[in-house]
Amino acid sequence: xxxxxxxxxxxxxxxxxxxxxxxxxxxxxxxxxxxxxxxxxxxxxxxxxxxxxxxxxxxxxxxxxxxxxxxxxxxxxxxxxxxxxxxxxxxxxxxxxxxxxxxxxxxxxxxxxxxxxxxxxxxxxxxxxxxxxxxxxxxxxxxxxxxxxxxxxxxxxxxxxxx
Length: 163
Hints:
The protein is mainly α and 163 residues long. It has a domain of 76 residues: Arc Repressor Mutant, subunit A (Orthogonal Bundle). A hairpin with a 3-residue loop joins β1 and β2.
């Protein structure tokens, strides 16, 4: 089963379309907490996408806290609160919230529904501002990561026996 074609042209990458449909399956209870997600190969066949595209879709859901992965075993749906809504620490992406009214058959609205999108609009936060803030945060984390790698290399060098 492939994703339903959109009535208007959507320029988002295929992995986001796949992530949308999988997210909908999780939030509507078609894939229950604790259940294993379809394999990469099954996702490739279902959505007609490449291996890396299917992996990217799962990465989106993992980053959102909807699924978790156990190396060598697969990806599983994370536990959510009652009512099919994600747990309190889940925040749906802004583009998902903004387009939720246009999607048929969406899950019941809760704390992460369109009210959250309206609150973000009321706060004057645009998607571009959110993305800019995320980019800046990633740059800071990347710099911290590089510094830690240098420190680890220095410690390894210092611990090596000298000939």
